[in-house]
Amino acid sequence: MSPLVEPSLLEILACPNCHSPLREDTEASELVCTDQSCALAYPVRDHIPVLLIDEARKVG
After folding, report:
1. 22-52: per-residue pLDDT in tens?
2. Do 44 and 4 meet the contact criterion of CB atoms below 8 Å apart?
3. What is the DSSP letter of 12?
């Protein structure tokens, strides 16, 4: 499966809520915060991450 966003972009992106790194969930087309206490998932639409807290969903 191809990456949702360019790897170089993923390296510099951070969660808008807690500033932790993000990881890809290609099956759900989301970028997920790596901080388990935050655990927000941000949608990726047409290879563009939507990093708005209001658009995110809580994982788990």
Report:
1. 999 999 999 999 999 999 999 999 989 999 9
2. yes
3. H
For 8: left if phi > 0, alpha if psi spans -120 to 50, otherwise beta; the answer is alpha
SS3 state at 38: coil
24 residue type, one letter:
E
Report d(CA 57, CA 42) in Å as an integer.
7
* Residue 29, Cβ density class (10 Å: 0-12 exposed, 13-18 middle, ≥19 buried): middle
Task: Indicate yes or no: pTM above 0.70.
Answer: yes
User: In the structure encoding, which two tokens stand for residue 53, read together?
Assistant: 């807290």
